Amino acid sequence: MKLLLAAALFVLYTFDSADSSAYDKILTHSRIRARKEGPNVCALQQVVGTKKKYFSTCRNWYHGAICGKKATVLYECCPGYIKLDGMRGCPAGTSFTPFFFFTILQNQAHKISININKGMLISKQVIRSLVAPIDHVYGSLGIVKASSTQKYADISKVRPEIEGSGSFTFFAPSNEAWELLDEDVRNALVSNVNIELYNALHYHMANKRLLTKDLKNGMTITSMYNDLDLHINHYSNGVVTVNCARIISGNQIATNGVVHVIDRVISAIGNSMQDVIEVEDDLTTLSDLAQTSGLLEKLGQPGHYTLFAPTNDAFDKLGSDVLERLQSDKEVLKALLSFHLLDSVQCSEAIMVGSSYETLEGNNIEIGCDGDSLTVNGVKMVLKKDIVTKNGVIHLIDQVLLPDSAKQVMELLGSSQSTFGDMISELGISTSMASDAEYTFLAPLNDVFTDEVMSIDQDDLRVILENHVLKNKIMLGQLYNGQLLETIAGKTLRVFIYRTAVCIENSCLIRGTKEGANGALHLMKTLLKPAAKTMFEILKQNGNFKIFLSLMEAAGLTDVLRQEGSFTLFAPSDKAFASLATRDLELLKSNKNALKTILLYHLTNAVFVSGGLEVGVTNLLKSLQGSSLKLIFANSTTQVNSVKVPEADIMATNGVVHFVNQVLYPGDMPVGSQDLLMVLRKLVTYIQVKYIAGFKYQEIPLTFMKTIVTHVVKEGEPSTIMTTRVVKSGSKPRLFKEEAFSTGRVTGDVGEEEPWF
């Protein structure tokens, strides 16, 4: 008879196992890890110094730790199997499972005959030697060593019920679970076995057989005590909880159901999170703030939440000023409280490593563990775990979690920007910022503040840092190429957008942008150097570019360096021309088209700063001459056409200047004069300039040249605008002068851009 029952249960279990759960998959991995120990052995990890054992994930197994604590490896019989004297592994099944069936096929094939078409026959000898008889639920409690639960089932008169007919699921507390129960509570249950203990055990039971694969995440099961719900969570790491009690051994098949052993005694749930907060003496501040923000009602609605609830002491630590500021802004307050709330149930027993979870505020927090303690963002702050409610779980914490959205802009500064924060405080910049205004910090990292920077005169340093504070709150997504930003020092900063970078003047943003209640924070690679001079003024003041400037003047291109625009100039220093004699320079100046070709190859009509370049990627920049420059940033060095740039990112009001010590020349451009070839071979050493007899340089249309407007004020006369325009007239330009008086009316086409042809 038992043989037929075992076969029937096997078929039933086989059908049920068609789709395995996370628990089943982790159990399978545990079997694989222990395969050398014999059949049906599972490898577990036990936290050193505790009795906690886990069927571990690959991550925990690899690190040899659970919750940051060392874990030793144990080999035990998998659930549903037992050892037999003199036999390797765990060959005896306490319930007839598919795993056991395949073990029979492998180890006892000579004693089994199978007819696929007509059914299955298993010899009695195999069953007697390898299968311990399955039992009803009451008997199965003894098999899984839940002897305390078995004893309490006996004295509370639950035994006849779970020995009889039916189909039950029993979540049976282990012996250790009963020992962990508060002694007064346990004594109260035992002293009233016919009511309290009977009801408590019934709350651990469901009137339906449910295997671990049937226990879906977020489901509720109607218990056998007053139809109150049991709350199930099935996590991806294989942990299954019932009211946050972990199933430590599951799927002990019984003739009238199944037994799952859990690690704690569970109690009936009837309250919502709102109910708990409103009656808990230590959560009165949270209750008041939740009421003010409008969030309290949500905590009473159905759902699956995790609330990290700060205690009254936690809010007191913020200080009265901060608390008043938070209370004065309902939206900020709501964001603050939502940052403590997850839209999922995270029971403490399911947390084995640190993981990031999105809060209802929108940003993430990391929940982890350190031994028996839960951690939030790496800090031990959980005072009490697993207050289970009908819409989730509450963990009490002794600190308030401040999201960026609830912080003032000064509070957004982290440890890597602490020097910037200290300096703007010491120099009085932060105190000069209006409390009701919004700002954006462009905060350099600490290592930017070298001894050289810190030795700058304090008044000058204050101005420098004031240019790292924008007048408005501007988030990363609001920045666009060519945008102008105003600092509190009155300077205008330009935005440059590249394929993989966003730069403001010479400095580019790095990851770490934050948005606060009254401002934003962007992290910067270097100190900002706002432009104050044109490219012409920079080169003239430097003094090492006299030859280049003289050649630009000879070519009639000096105004390119003066005019408004967004150019990149690779400026060859006087060193680049050191090999030339005076007559070589005169030869260059005598061939205007050749000279323009060479000079305009050093300019592009866009701003490229080195920090905006993707590392190791060659960027093709079209020069004003027409050919492409090859710009690359690698090994902390910028190169153009393989020529090193010794000094980069000198910001000008009309672009950016990079200094080079060689003259650049387009590789696709030949030369048709032997004399000019000799000069170019002295100048250009990184490529071989090609010679094609008779080749002539073409005139380059100067479409980038702009109208120059000068203002002349004569004493005793109206203001006059003298305008020089370049207009097309055959191959020669003609210059016209027009006057407009202080009425503001300008005649003709003054102010329009027209090309030189």
From TrEMBL:
<keyword id="KW-0964">Secreted</keyword>
<feature type="domain" description="FAS1">
    <location>
        <begin position="532"/>
        <end position="664"/>
    </location>
</feature>
<dbReference type="GO" id="GO:0071307">
    <property type="term" value="P:cellular response to vitamin K"/>
</dbReference>
<dbReference type="Pfam" id="PF02469">
    <property type="entry name" value="Fasciclin"/>
</dbReference>
<dbReference type="GO" id="GO:0030198">
    <property type="term" value="P:extracellular matrix organization"/>
</dbReference>
<dbReference type="GO" id="GO:0007155">
    <property type="term" value="P:cell adhesion"/>
</dbReference>
<dbReference type="GO" id="GO:0031012">
    <property type="term" value="C:extracellular matrix"/>
</dbReference>
<feature type="signal peptide">
    <location>
        <begin position="1"/>
        <end position="20"/>
    </location>
</feature>
<keyword id="KW-0325">Glycoprotein</keyword>
<dbReference type="GO" id="GO:0050839">
    <property type="term" value="F:cell adhesion molecule binding"/>
</dbReference>
<keyword id="KW-0301">Gamma-carboxyglutamic acid</keyword>
<keyword id="KW-0732">Signal</keyword>
<keyword id="KW-0333">Golgi apparatus</keyword>
<dbReference type="GO" id="GO:0005794">
    <property type="term" value="C:Golgi apparatus"/>
</dbReference>
<comment type="subunit">
    <text>Homodimer. Interacts with BMP1 and fibronectin.</text>
</comment>
<feature type="domain" description="FAS1">
    <location>
        <begin position="270"/>
        <end position="401"/>
    </location>
</feature>
<dbReference type="GO" id="GO:0008201">
    <property type="term" value="F:heparin binding"/>
</dbReference>
<dbReference type="InterPro" id="IPR036378">
    <property type="entry name" value="FAS1_dom_sf"/>
</dbReference>
<feature type="domain" description="FAS1">
    <location>
        <begin position="124"/>
        <end position="266"/>
    </location>
</feature>
<keyword id="KW-0272">Extracellular matrix</keyword>
<keyword id="KW-0358">Heparin-binding</keyword>
<protein>
    <recommendedName>
        <fullName>Periostin</fullName>
    </recommendedName>
</protein>
<dbReference type="InterPro" id="IPR011489">
    <property type="entry name" value="EMI_domain"/>
</dbReference>
<dbReference type="InterPro" id="IPR000782">
    <property type="entry name" value="FAS1_domain"/>
</dbReference>
<comment type="function">
    <text>Induces cell attachment and spreading and plays a role in cell adhesion. Enhances incorporation of BMP1 in the fibronectin matrix of connective tissues, and subsequent proteolytic activation of lysyl oxidase LOX.</text>
</comment>
<feature type="domain" description="FAS1">
    <location>
        <begin position="404"/>
        <end position="528"/>
    </location>
</feature>
<keyword id="KW-1015">Disulfide bond</keyword>
<keyword id="KW-0130">Cell adhesion</keyword>
<dbReference type="InterPro" id="IPR050904">
    <property type="entry name" value="Adhesion/Biosynth-related"/>
</dbReference>
<dbReference type="GO" id="GO:0005615">
    <property type="term" value="C:extracellular space"/>
</dbReference>
<keyword id="KW-0677">Repeat</keyword>
<feature type="domain" description="EMI">
    <location>
        <begin position="38"/>
        <end position="92"/>
    </location>
</feature>
